[in-house]
Design a protein that fits this description.
The chain contains nine helices and 19 strands. By secondary structure, the protein is of the alpha+beta class. The protein starts with a helix and ends with a helix.
Length: 469
């Protein structure tokens, strides 16, 4: 009787363990479905969801750190044709994107429209000095005029430069260079970021994800158009992905993230680099690849972005993007800071640059389950171009076209401690608890099952052996 009870007990234990393990396995399937269902529901851009509340608010502060390039040898460049030698000054830090989206309108096709207001507030405590610091910088008016005036009319430009007492370089305060000053040549306001305050980016039309969560946040139209009108090419004029503030949930690290940036007038992609820990939250870091601004000889997809073959050495120059088509013809060239991933000639023509992937690469840290961008660093450099002239006095010593760095920016934001704690409490901790419960039930069930099964086998062997003794 005792043997029967023990044998039955082991069998019951094995059955119980199997049931517990099965429960754990079922909970994995059911639990994951519950989590995915909750994320899909809360990721839709409509009133009442977590995503909508976050999306409509100003969110965590975004800071734009700016380094300006101070020319050390202006007289040598002008008089002897020496190569410019620059040093960076900064950061001068501004609080930006502190204003929430405006004119939010829900559309019948499951999209929502909005305008993104722009503003910048100087943050002295986060800067190396006041905005009144002076630097020797490129004369934006002369550089712009050089591209806008055909060579046959350079004598007109020479006359304007002389009458306005201008030169190729100038002394300006940081504030003037960045946000605007009266240009004596064109009698208009010029500045690296002028106009900025009290302006708007958009309209943007983005999908809400209500009918298809895989499309949430993806841009349908920008300024009323489903494609750009800058590059005269179907591929380069495509508007792909989101605005990078968020992406559709359930990220696959093997697939790149696509986003559109109005700052550079094009769409780009970022690829998975590594997993990072952000205040106890696992995020996927995606970075721009060197091929993003590679020359068409390396990346043929960039052929349609090459609009000036003379300046770009027959489109062989890597690392810069001529955005003059969307800048009213102004010779503005965008690159990564210090010409990171750019052609060596860029750093040979202008001395004093030292590119560093650690400090100069653009990245996005995205939470993979929700698709929310929890930290980012957008790093870009603004350059302008000038070249030789037989007529314009201040350009007679210039030997070749020069892409001159004016300033570079690091626009960053990250979730604060309070938001991180709330995110972990509402999502991460629940997911982790569910995972522990799933693994605990599955693991303990398997342990009980195999322990009872092995014990039953051992018990039966002993029992059989005793029968023959």
């Amino acid at each position: 009787m005792g043997c029967c009870n023990r044998s039955c007990g082991l069998i019951t234990g094995a059955v119980f363990g199997a049931l517990v393990a099965i429960l754990g396995g079922v909970l994995i399937l059911v639990g994951n479905n519950i989590i995915e269902g909750t994320v899909e529901k809360e990721a839709v851009l409509e009133p009442g969801t977590t995503a909508y509340e976050t999306w409509t608010s100003a969110g965590n502060p975004v800071y734009r750190q700016i380094w300006v390039f101070d020319l050390l040898n202006p007289l040598e460049v002008l008089q002897y044709g020496a190569k410019p030698v620059v040093t960076e000054r900064g950061p001068y830090t501004y609080k930006t994107r502190f204003l929430p989206k405006v004119n939010i309108t829900t559309n019948p096709n499951n999209t929502v429209s909005f305008l993104l207001p722009a503003g910048a507030i100087f943050e002295p405590s986060m800067s190396v000095g006041p905005e009144e610091d002076q630097v020797t910088c490129l004369n934006l008016g002369v550089a712009a005029a050089y591209s806008l005036f055909p060579k046959l009319t350079h004598f007109v430009l020479e006359d304007l430069i002389k009458k306005s007492n201008s030169s190729l370089f100038q002394r300006r305060t940081v504030k003037e260079l960045l946000w605007g000053y009266p240009d004596p040549i064109f009698k208009v306001t010029l500045g690296v970021f002028y106009p900025y305050n009290d302006t708007f980016d958009g309209y943007y039309d983005v999908y809400t994800g209500k009918d298809d969560i895989s499309k949430v946040g993806i841009i349908d139209r920008w300024r009323g158009q489903s494609s750009l009108k800058f590059w005269n090419d179907t591929y380069c004029d495509m508007i792909n992905g989101t605005d990078a503030s968020s992406f559709p949930p359930f990220l696959d690290k093997k697939k790149p993230l696509y986003f559109f940036s109005s700052d550079i007038c094009r769409s780009v992609s970022a690829s998975f680099a590594e997993s990072k820990d952000l205040k106890g939250i696992e995020v996927y870091r995606f970075t721009l690849l060197p091929s993003t601004l590679a020359s068409p000889t390396v990346n043929p997809d960039n052929q349609c972005f090459c609009t000036n073959k003379e300046v770009t050495k027959n489109c062989a120059l890597a690392g810069v993007l001529d955005i003059s088509p969307c800048q009213a013809g102004r010779p503005v060239y965008i690159s990564l800071p210090h010409f990171l991933h750019g052609s060596p000639s860029l750093r040979e023509d202008v001395l004093g640059l030292n590119p560093s992937p650690e400090h100069h690469v653009t990245y996005l840290d995205v939470e993979p389950l929700t698709g929310f961008t929890l930290r980012f660093a957008k790093r870009l450099q603004v350059n302008m171009m000038y070249g030789p002239s037989k007529v314009i006095t201040v350009l007679k010593k210039v030997k070749d076209y020069t892409v001159f760095p004016v300033a570079w920016l690091n626009e960053t934001a990250a979730l604060d401690d309070e938001t991180a704690d709330r995110f972990k409490a509402e999502l991460v901790s629940r997911v982790q608890l569910l995972e522990k419960l799933q693994m605990g039930l599955l693991g303990s069930g398997l342990v009980i099952f195999f322990t009872c099964l092995i014990s039953f086998g051992v018990f039966r062997c002993r029992e059989n052996r005793n029968k023959f003794v």
